[in-house]
Specification:
- By secondary structure, this protein is of the alpha/beta class.
- The protein has 2 domains: about 60 residues, Helicase, Ruva Protein, domain 3 (Orthogonal Bundle), CATH 1.10.8; about 220 residues, Vaccinia Virus protein VP39 (Rossmann fold, 3-Layer(aba) Sandwich).
- It contains 11 helices and 9 strands.
- The strands form 2 sheets. It has a 7-stranded mixed beta sheet with strand order 5-4-3-6-7-9-8, with helices on both faces. Strands 1-2 form a two-stranded antiparallel sheet.
- A hairpin with a 2-residue loop joins strand 1 and strand 2.
- Helix 1 packs across helix 2, helix 2 runs antiparallel to helix 4 and helix 10 packs across helix 11.
- It is globular, with a radius of gyration of 21 Å.
- The protein binds S-adenosylmethionine.
- The site of S-adenosylmethionine has 23 residues, from helix 7 and strand 4.
Length: about 300
């Protein structure tokens, strides 16, 4: 019977030959999934035998990976912001760089709550209307759900202190977002809305949002064919941002005067090469509005911040 070590060595070779740049990691993740243990346990028990059923599951998974399918879709799971998200071909696989947007959103909510007058002098217990947040193009729900969990861990009461409206044009992706919210017990104070960017009437009788978050498609249409093969398994709707990659961001920017409170802020994820073109595109739609770009952990342009003049 093949051992863990044998299986990993064979699969690594096969995946490397198929063009994977992360062949060994892929093999370890897929074997861990097939035998239902984490990677550390695999490494600690390299000489343990792999049963016939697990080996068959592993072989099938390696064949899918060798054909280019992302590991996350094969395992059905992706870690984002320290949480396990269910993922499949209904939605984009959440990317680590998007965590920057969640970090900024957490800071924004906490400073707004702290600035509120309340019985306890501010903080999550303070009174007033909830802070209204939108996550436009929620996909798997990664941003909305990670934010809700992070706020809950800071004793923010979802529904009372904060509400989140997650919109999505793809009903299949929206189902996945709902599943992830339920899976993390984070559905309180959260609404999932099928809409082309915004519903005809915003939630809470049309009340504008205090914080708008959006990781929308921002890849240039003619760059999509050149992306790694794994990307071809993801919905094109999640990637294609039009000729300059900024069409969907521009369309949201056009709506900001109506959908954002006077002191509201919009945070858009942008591509590392859009640090100049992103603010320019939004500035052309919203003359006089303030724009700035925040870097991610790799110091690359990542989040475009937009506020009223
Ligand atoms: C880049 S993916 C990001 C998904 C998720 N926000 C994340 O960070 O993992 C963009 C998402 O926007 C959605 N989308 C594209 N155009 C949209 C539109 N006009 N209205 C609402 N959602 C849209 C896509 O279906 C996709 O789920």
């Amino acid at each position: 019977m093949a051992t863990i070590q044998d299986c990993i060595a064979d699969a690594t070779q096969r995946l490397r030959a198929a063009g994977s740049e992360t062949a060994r990691l892929d093999a370890e993740l897929l074997l861990g999934w097939a035998v239902n243990v984490d990677r550390t346990a695999l490494i600690a028990h390299r000489d343990a035998p792999v049963g016939a059923d697990a080996q068959a599951r592993f072989e099938a998974a390696v064949t899918r990976r060798a054909a280019g399918e992302p590991v996350a879709y094969i395992r059905g799971i992706k870690e984002f912001f320290g949480l396990a998200f269910a993922v499949d071909a209904r939605a984009l696989i959440p990317r680590p760089e998007t965590e920057a947007l969640v970090d900024l959103a957490v800071g924004e909510v906490m400073s707004r709550l702290a600035a509120r007058p309340g019985e306890a002098g501010g903080g999550p217990g303070a009174g007033g209307d909830p802070i209204r947040i939108a996550d436009i193009g929620t996909g798997s729900g990664a941003i909305a759900v990670a934010l809700a969990v992070a706020l809950r861990n800071r004793r923010v009461v979802m529904g009372r202190n904060v509400t989140i409206a997650a919109t999505e044009v793809s009903p299949e992706a929206l189902d996945l977002a709902r599943e992830n919210a339920v899976g993390h017990a984070a559905a309180d104070g959260m609404r999932f809305i099928e809409a082309d960017l915004f519903p005809p009437v915003l939630p809470d009788n049309g009340a504008p949002f205090d914080i708008l978050l959006a990781n929308l498609p921002y890849v240039q249409s003619d760059a999509i064919a050149g992306l790694p093969i794994a990307t071809s398994f993801e919905p094109r709707l999640a990637l294609d941002g039009g000729p300059d990659g900024l069409d969907v961001i521009r369309a949201v920017a056009e709506r900001l005067p109506d959908v954002l409170t006077d002191d509201g802020v919009a945070l858009f994820e942008i591509g590392a090469d859009q640090g100049a073109s992103g603010p320019a595109a939004v500035g052309a739609v919203l003359p006089g509005w303030r724009t700035s770009v925040e870097p991610d952990l790799a110091r690359l342009p990542r989040v475009l911040r937009v506020e009223r003049p």
